[in-house]
Amino acid sequence: MTALRRSCLCGEVQFEIDGPLMRASHCHCRQCQKGHGAPFRTRARVAAANFRYLAGEELVSFCESTPGRHRGFCQVCGAPVLVKLDEHSRSAQTDPGAVALYGVALATLDDDPGRPPPTRTRLSSTRRRG
């Protein structure tokens, strides 16, 4: 498989994925709507071992949007870069292997992934209050 190159809006953060995109989906939860400023986020999962920064890793800041879910954004342009899960995330509670995966926004792909758009949707979200 040829590595897929990705970048943020300003191009300061660049990375590549050298492995398959998995479980592509559209997520309509409130967290994704707020995080992307859109009605949904189109994303796929990738193995963390297949993700490599090419430039700007130090420009990525993380926000814990829900317990155990860390959303990474470019400090320069604010574009979403990736989502990391830790063992406290709801996903890891049901699938411990989830911590070895990153969520990536498909819109950040600079190369054509050669796949049709995803069809799965998620319509619910647990909101953290306070």
Provide a brief overview of the structure.
The chain has two helices and ten strands; from the N terminus they run βββαβββββαββ.
How would you characterize this protein structure?
The chain is mainly β and 130 residues long. It has a single domain, classed as Beta Complex (Metal Binding Protein, Guanine Nucleotide Exchange Factor, Chain A). The protein is 9% helix and 41% strand. It has two helices and ten strands, in the order βββαβββββαββ. The strands form two sheets. A seven-stranded mixed sheet has the order 6-7-8-9-4-3-10. A three-stranded antiparallel sheet has the order 1-2-5, with no helix packed on it. The longest helix is centred in the first third of the chain and has 7 residues. It is globular, with a radius of gyration of 14 Å. The termini are far apart. The C terminus is likely disordered.
The general outline is: globular
What low-confidence regions span 5 or more consecutive residues with pLDDT below 50? Answer: 126-130
Total count of domains: 1
Using only C-alpha atoms, the radius of gyration works out to 14 Å
CATH architecture tag: Beta Complex
Strand and helix order: EEEHEEEEEHEE
Task: Give the number of helices.
Answer: 2
Helix content range of the residues, please?
Answer: under 10%
Task: Report how far the terminal alpha carbons are from each other.
Answer: 45 Å
Care to count the β-strands? Answer: 10
CATH topology type: Metal Binding Protein, Guanine Nucleotide Exchange Factor, Chain A
Task: Report mean pLDDT, rounded to a whole number.
Answer: 80
Biggest sheet descriptor:
7 strands, mixed
CATH class: Mainly Beta
Strand order of the largest sheet: 6-7-8-9-4-3-10
The secondary-structure class comes to mainly beta
